[in-house]
Amino acid sequence: MSENTSGGLLVPVVDDDGAPFWTYAAQGELRVQACAAPDCGELRFPPRPCCPHCHSFDSEWRRMSGKGRIWSYVLPHPPLLPAYAAQAPYNAVVVELSDAPRIRLVGNVVAAPGAALDSVDPARLRVGAKVQVAFAEGADGLTVPQWLLERS
Amino acid sequence: MATLKDATAIVGTGQTRFARQLPESEKTLACRAVLAALDDAGIAPSEVDGLASYTMEETDEVELAKSIGAGDLTFFSKAGFGGGGSCATVAHLAAAIATGQASVGVAWRSRKRGSGPRPWKNTTAQLPTPAQWTRPFGLLRPADEIGMLARRYMHEYGATRDHLFNVALACRNRANQNPAAMMYDRPLTRDMYMNARWISDPLCLFDNCLETDGALACVIVSAERALDCRQKPVYVHSVAQGLPAQHHGMVNYWNDDPLTGPAWTAARQLWKQADFGPDDVDVAQIYDAFTPLIPLSLEGYGFCGRGEGAAFTEGGALESGGRLPINTGGGGLSEAYVHGFNLITEGVKQLRGTSTAQVPGAATCLVTAGEGVPTSALLLRS
């Protein structure tokens, strides 16, 4: 596999716009890019150079509570890239952040930080289920957010 | 304001065989389809002065023009976003011909998806924005990306797998009438659908399009010239492209409303320029890389209200004799997946009265390109 993998899993390519996201993730913080113009402050995701609302190029990274709800999910089955096939069926989810409506992150619900992509019984997943962010460091050194189901 | 309305017509179509594996190259298949389309129109290849294709086409205009013996080209265009660009090829040629930039335009698609590697095999090369935010988490394939929208759609509107089955069945039933379709002699049952293996739950095998080798082409000329061609003209009544504000191709999860995709944008433009509306469409060819794209498109193009697309599929509405027969050649789900170009040629067949699942008296047809990506659409009329 190429340099973009960690144990065969794909690793995010950190670009200039997104770099702060990953830096904060390594510190255990979930932060979302926000416009830094005084009268704007709109959140945006994925990160990009300027604000689509006011066109300011000034941005800041606002800390989120890390709470969210499952907006949707899929359970991929093979054929898949080999490292993913080995864990299939696993879950891939879109999480809508509780304190930032319409900021949504793709991720995985796991049993514990760093656990396998198939570590949660898919029968426990529901649209609307509450989740809490956790962070896991991959073999490549990049820390990625993962999601833990909240007991409700 | 100048208008494209009925200013041009499709006067020739051509296609190769559709199969899981064909021995010939994409370039050879493209040449065969283009020459067949020109022969169908009764126009010499040397008269071709306009070409249009869409991205992921392996053969470029230079190679195709040389191979078929085209004349001097004065217009060439390549529309973006893969399956979203199918109808844009016709739209671009119609605009070029109507404004005098070319006189004989050919649009084509050649694919060897059945033989080649799956696109997601190249995932590592596709990780920069926005894929870096999705693919590392195992959202690898188009089926995973659209499955995510499908689950949400089912949750919001009570759509079920039976609704998706209605879509798969309508396409398969039409393919069963079409000897050229890959699924010509392979009926589908509800049991087969419900017991099929998952690809990306909630999408099973039969929610996914085929993997096909094959090529197709069509020829476009002015409405005036069309009267002198071999075939009954099929007029390009209205055209549109659509890329909504803040849209993200395939993974539109970051839009305020992820379930209103590019179809909605294309539809507004399409109907604005048309003399008729959704209720007047006799037959539709709706891009069906995945079954959920049909209810989403039915809503986007105004055949029903928001959230009503699944219910629309009930009671045989999409079948022959139903309220809106769709994908009458079998579509991408059951005829051939050639990035939707077969939907254009099937639309032409319907308006010529030569479809293998002919809608009696069909005089108007909607053809759409891929929903979920920046898209395009055509209204054709006889």
UniProtKB/TrEMBL annotation, chain A:
It comes from the Bacteria. Transmembrane segments: none annotated. It holds the Pfam family OB_ChsH2_C. Residues 61-135 form the ChsH2 C-terminal OB-fold domain. This is OB-fold domain-containing protein. Residues 22-58 form the ChsH2 rubredoxin-like zinc ribbon domain. PANTHER family: BLR3430 PROTEIN. InterPro entries: ChsH2_C, ChsH2_Znr, NA-bd_OB-fold, Thioester_dehydratase-like.
UniProtKB/TrEMBL annotation, chain B:
GO terms for molecular function: acyltransferase activity, transferring groups other than amino-acyl groups. It holds the Pfam family Thiolase_C_1. Transmembrane segments: none annotated. Residues 256-374 form the Thiolase C-terminal domain. It comes from Streptomyces agglomeratus. It comes from the Bacteria. This is Lipid-transfer protein. Gene3D superfamilies: 3.40.47.10. InterPro entries: Thiolase, Thiolase-like, Thiolase_C_2.
